[in-house]
Amino acid sequence: MMPRDLLERLTGLLGPAAVLAEGPDLEPYAVDWRKLFPGKPACVVRPSSAEQVAGIVRICREAGAAIVPQGGNTGLAGGAVPDASGTQVVLSLNRMAAIRNVDPVGLTLEAEAGCILKVAQDAAAAAGRLLPISLAAEGSATIGGVVAANAGGVNVLRYGMTRSLVLGLEVVLPDGTIANGLRRLRKDNAGYDWKQLFIGSEGTLGIVTAAILRLLPRPKHSVTALLSVVDPAAALRLLELAQDELGDQISAFELISATSMQLVAKHAGLKTPIAEGEWFVLIEAASSLAGLREAAEAMLGMAFEREIALDGVIAESGAQAAQLWALREHVTESEAREGKSVKHDVSVPLTEVPRFLHEAGEALAAGAPGTRVNAFGHLGDGNIHYNVLVDHGHDPNVVNRIVHDMVAAFGGSISAEHGIGQYRVGELARYRASTEMELARRLKRALDPESLLNPGKVLLP
Ligand code: 2HG
Ligand code: ZN
């Protein structure tokens, strides 16, 4: 089938307004927001139902045209954009954005794939409940993308990755059938839990069209504190203290380097309200029981007394808490403004983070002198965004190798939360054991033997 026939059949199924074939309208779907992975779609289709998604899959399958599912296109690994061949069909879920149901007693929310994460958070809040998935891109990221990427974010420490919040899923399979597992059950041990295959598969095994997410009671009180510490080892001691004193009420424990803070000051004009240190920690805790603030103040007192923290502040209001969070949330954008960087989204066993940071720094100083490290991230999860600014003609591949070899030496992962996409497809093949890779390929072949869905992502052909 010629592309013209493909276009005609897709237009026949969806109507002309839902098929973008040329012009500037294609641009936002063709490239990721960092403009690192420019692609060229054959066309963009915008279905409005799972049945339409299934119809698109069947038509593309007959035509042998690959499909790239896309949500808010906020990913950092190039997983949702087409290649440059001009043959891949981008399937945008952004017209399927309805919230179908919020159940404040059963604690569930059902939404279509294209629903913006922030809209879903707000719907849960309006019902007095909490959807705890929270990340900097939440104003654009969609539920389908968040599920397909198994997104992390700042609340993983308490609530887990997206996977732990998915109760039910509807997925269109590469053969064009719809697997409907939209059950709002807390317990469902009837057979294989097949939805887990699709969570985090980055659109390579199926297309998520709707999800039922688990909600939580909304904590009535929260405290946010920013502290400075002398080094990452002190930050870990602070985590231990916070766990002792605030227990399971800690919802975020974020590490920010002085370099990150300097970038945020330079490019976003935001300044830390506490004395400069080499490292900063942003802590949030939340609870419905009284006494949280007192406990947090006591914890801070102990941190100073034991010389774990150098300086610190507890937000006095919601507005102040938002100001503290803004420091953390502007790191990515400020880094982008500073220039070119090589991102590493790594995890190592939590207690190894200080040693990893030290040794990776030494290895870079020796192997790629002049690079600057912008390290920050989710210390409570052992997940550091170890981004290296390479503005002086450094070879990104050399930098990558140094950092990822160090991650491997620590028994870590080269992608803690951002996924593999196309950015790390070669790196995954290099660092994962061949038996694990072969198992992944067997799953891919079983579900998508023609490699119709998102080829070139996660697994090399
Ligand atoms: C974050 O934690 C995001 O802010 C982005 O995962 C990290 O820019 C990055 O590398
Ligand atoms: Zn992150």
Automatic annotation (TrEMBL):
Q: What keyword terms does UniProt attach to this protein? A: FAD, Flavoprotein
**SUPFAM superfamilies for the chain:** FAD-binding/transporter-associated domain-like, FAD-linked oxidases, C-terminal domain
A single Pfam family it belongs to is FAD-oxidase_C
Positions of the FAD-binding PCMH-type domain: 37-218
Q: Which family does it belong to?
A: Belongs to the FAD-binding oxidoreductase/transferase type 4 family.
The protein depicted here goes by the name FAD-binding protein
